[in-house]
Amino acid sequence: MPIFKECQQLNLRPWECPSFLFVLMGLITITAIIATYLITSQYTGPEVVISSVVGITIVILIIGNFVVNSVSRIAQTHQMQQEFVSITSHQLRTPLSSLRWSLEALLKTNLNQKQLNYAQIISESQQKMLKLVNDLLNVARIEQGRFELQKEKFDLSKLIQEVIAEFKIFAQANNTKIIFSKDAICYVLADKEKIKMVLENLIYNAIQYGGKDVIIKINKNIISVQDNGVGIPKAQQKQIFQKFFRAKNILRRQTQGTGLGLYIAKAIIKAHQGKIWFESKENKGTMFYMKLTTKLK
Amino acid sequence: MKKTILFIEDEANLQKLVSEQLTAEGFECLSALNGEIGLKKANETRPDLILLDLILPKKDGFEALKILKSQKETKNIPVIVLTNLESSVDIQKALALGATAYLVKANYKLEEIVKKIKELCG
Fold it and tell me: With DSSP H G I counted as helix, E B as strand and the rest as coil, what are the percentages for chain B, rounded to 5?
């Protein structure tokens, strides 16, 4: 039963689960109406009709009360979760800033090779942790509807080139070649930092899960990022924009990543009234498209 | 003459790190661990620049900023807000109260922060 599955996913017992209670309410109402019909067809006195109507109403009210309670409990839990995420994220970022800055200072002192290697490991871990905390913070903002855009006019192709330059070493390490082409200079009015996050995410995925070539194009106002890597299994293509989702064939290859990147990317593009979609074949590769509908010039 | 910077921040470690860097760059660095001490030191020493965190014990950064900008003696001292809050509401509020710049700690290297400070009071 899909209802039980849904309740299980929400981690709720049946009598706390709105969709189950709703169906239960329907069934009881139908039964009560049939029973009323049977009773009233035999006894036609007005007292009997009225008391059965009152009876049905009471039953519906009781179950309705359960539904309302369970919905508000879920809403409360959700709210608490969001607050938890945003508080921890802020609190975590303070020690992470100290860590980052003290490492920066440490790396400027005279370290021997061994010490330098250790310091670099700490530095990389710190960067990963900061990225995770920032991702969580973004998810919390998206879900609270506090996702703000700071729009400015900028050259999209220049931004893409910046991101490619950032990933140069990572691409070399993965033996991946990045090719970029564009059909025109394109200025957009958008949140530069956030669009950069989307591009970083798509290009990172393309390199990480991709094959030898990553082809990035701006063509007729559509930006595409194509790889010839593992692809996304057909059965899971519907889920890839969900948060914390990670495709099975990727989990087999490596374990890093949180499954937040594409969820955030979609929210960013949606906030810009744009569109993001993809085509993918397992073992052939994936092609992501994004379109910032209104403001591409 | 050496330029003086007052750093109002409750994280002692962060305080030490930034102060060290600023001292190395030739600044005189004063520190305050809460908003009240911060205001007192600002009044006594009249620094050339104030670095201000927003979440602080005693008086928070917004309050401190409001007072700094309302007093004749401290009104003209540039204030850089250095914090990990980054909602546009907080940013707008701080800038409206008269902050010269708003920097989010997590987004910058120490080097970049020192550079900004130098730009503003070099």
Answer: 50, 20, 35
In the DSSP assignment, the letter for residue B3 is P
Q: Is A134 on the interface with B (CB under 8 A)?
A: yes
ipTM: 0.78
Q: Do B21 and A105 touch (CB under 8 A)?
A: yes
Task: Find, among B62, B5, B63, the residue nearest to B32 by Cα.
Answer: B5
Per DSSP, helices labelled H in A108-224 are 113-143, 156-166, 168-173, 192-208
* A24 phi and psi angles, rounded to 5 deg: -60, -45
Q: Of B11, B18, B20, which is closest to A94 when you measure between CB atoms?
A: B11
List, for residues A158-200, the tens digit of each pLDDT value: 888 888 888 888 888 888 888 888 887 778 888 888 889 888 8
Torsion of CA A182, A187, A189, A191, to 10 degrees: 60
Give the tens place of pLDDT for each residue, A20-58. Answer: 888 888 888 888 888 878 877 887 778 877 887 888 888
Q: Superfamily for A152-291?
A: Histidine kinase-like ATPase, C-terminal domain (3.30.565.10)
Q: What CATH architecture applies to the domain B4-121?
A: 3-Layer(aba) Sandwich (3.40)
DSSP label of A246:
-
The label of the residue with tokens 């539904």 reads: A67
